[in-house]
Design goal:
By secondary structure, this protein is mostly helical. The chain has 8 helices and no strands. Helices cover 82% and strands 0% of the residues.
Length: 210
């Protein structure tokens, strides 16, 4: 009987561990569902929901991008592009085709790969320019790409100093709102307000449709 009781105890322990794993899986699923719900609200123009999306997924986006690009400065730029793309195209997310996290990470990986290819193409164009004339369409592509980057820089410069500081720490450095608030010595609510106002100004400057 003692042996049987001990075996039952071990079985209960294993069941308990299994339940713990199931609970962790449930937590992850819950977070994924919450992200999908928040993206749905973002699609309706809810800036507060975008705050929640950023808090949950922003640092992971930066991590994915940096693994592809390597260069920290370019990774910061692409991270912002990805999050702006989530804001612009949230309505395109289809929960029936995959999780919200997978959708955002796919955007991040695609943007990162595009940036690497763009840098490679630019290098190749410059190398060819030294040896021969470049076709008109390639010149046009290079000019348009340069103008787009300049437009983004101009829009960032249109922000107030405190907004730009918050955006830099949050989007570029991958800090959460709470961490940004701690670094700047201001309440988290203040950081969220700055970020929301900055996001609206960037959207207007870039000509993003409501």
């Amino acid at each position: 009987m003692p042996a049987a009781s001990a075996g039952a105890g071990r079985g209960s322990g294993r069941a308990g561990k299994g339940s713990g794993r199931a609970g962790q899986g449930s937590d992850r699923a819950g977070k994924g569902s919450d992200l999908a719900a928040q993206i749905g609200l973002v699609a309706r123009g809810d800036a507060a929901a975008f705050d929640a999306v950023f808090e949950q997924i922003g640092p992971s986006v930066f991590g994915v991008v940096k693994r592809v690009i390597r260069d920290p400065a370019q990774s910061e730029e692409v991270t912002q592009e990805v999050l702006l793309e989530v804001w612009r195209n949230a309505a395109k997310f289809d929960a029936g085709r995959g999780s919200a996290t997978a959708w955002v990470m796919t955007l991040a990986h695609r943007r990162a790969v595009d940036r690497v290819r763009s840098v490679q193409k630019e290098y190749e164009r410059e190398r060819r320019l030294a040896a021969a004339d470049i076709p008109y369409d390639e010149v046009t592509e290079a000019v348009e790409s340069s103008l787009e980057r300049e437009r983004v820089r101009r829009c960032l410069n249109s922000l107030t100093e405190v907004q730009r500081e918050s955006v830099t720490l949050a989007y570029y450095r991958g800090y959460t709102y709470g961490q940004v608030a701690s670094l700047l010595g201001v309440p988290t609510g203040t950081v969220k307000t700055r970020m929301r106002d900055a996001l609206i100004r960037l959207r207007d400057c870039l000509g993003v449709a409501e």
